[in-house]
Design brief:
CATH topology of the largest domain: Nucleotidyltransferase, domain 5
Number of helices: 8
Strand content: 25-35%
Helix content: 40-55%
CATH architecture of the largest domain: 2-Layer Sandwich
Low-confidence stretches: none
Distance between the termini: 71 Å
Number of domains: 3
Radius of gyration: 22 Å
Order of helices and strands: HHEEEEEEHEEHHEHHH
Largest sheet: 5 strands, mixed
Mean pLDDT: 85
């Protein structure tokens, strides 16, 4: 900060600046959300770079954090991220980077998170006819409600960790788990249903 401003500044001054700018941004966000959800007004293309896209991936999660000066209460930091897809880090790489990443979040209710996220998304993007977007996260109901705020979301997925967790929870050490995971990797719709039915039949016979 001293290098940029060419003068020294105190921690309290920086804190006050952040609070002032934060209040200003929060007020702008509330106005944008009100106009969007109450009056149906699409947010202005602020920087003139709104993109028309065919799909968008949205992920959400929450983190529980201790609140300052309160040993018992915990706050919920809700986080969201959107991205347009992924690309290889370099042509020969086996690793990928997400493209067009944008982040959303704060210590507030799920309703507030989704209103803020939706308003920001529609400020940045317009969706082509027939576009399909994906919402991903754990099995929490509040994540699923994101579909009510972002109508272009047509598909709701469990993330890989929670999908595997649910499979192991329901099927234990079943021999069908590797088969189901292979079916999912192969993007096969019918085989997982067949293997789940077989697993259920075997489990029922064991419990008799």
């Amino acid at each position: 900060m001293e290098n940029i401003l060419e003068t020294s500044t105190s921690h309290s001054s920086i804190f006050n600046w952040v609070q002032k700018e934060g209040s200003k941004l929060a007020k702008e966000a509330k106005t944008k959300q009100h106009d969007f959800f109450n009056d149906g007004l699409i947010p202005d293309d602020k920087y003139g770079d709104r993109k028309e896209i065919e799909h968008l991936f949205v992920e959400a999660d929450e983190i529980h954090i201790p609140l300052q000066e309160d040993d018992k209460e915990k706050g919920e930091l809700k986080l969201g991220m959107s991205y347009q897809g992924w690309e290889k880090r370099h042509p020969m790489s086996d690793e990928y980077n997400l493209t067009g990443k944008k982040y959303y979040g704060g210590v507030f209710s799920s309703d507030e998170l989704w209103k803020e996220t939706a308003a920001e998304i529609y400020e940045d993007y317009s969706f082509a006819n027939g576009s399909i977007s994906v919402l991903c996260g754990d099995g929490a109901d509040w994540i699923t409600t994101g579909r009510e705020y972002i109508p272009q979301v047509k598909v709701r997925f469990l993330d890989k960790y929670h999908l595997n967790k649910n499979l192991f929870k329901k099927l234990g050490r079943s021999k069908f788990i590797p088969k189901l995971l292979d079916n999912i990797k192969e993007n096969d719709i019918d085989k997982p249903r067949e293997n789940l039915k077989k697993s259920k039949t075997i489990q029922t016979e064991k419990n008799r």
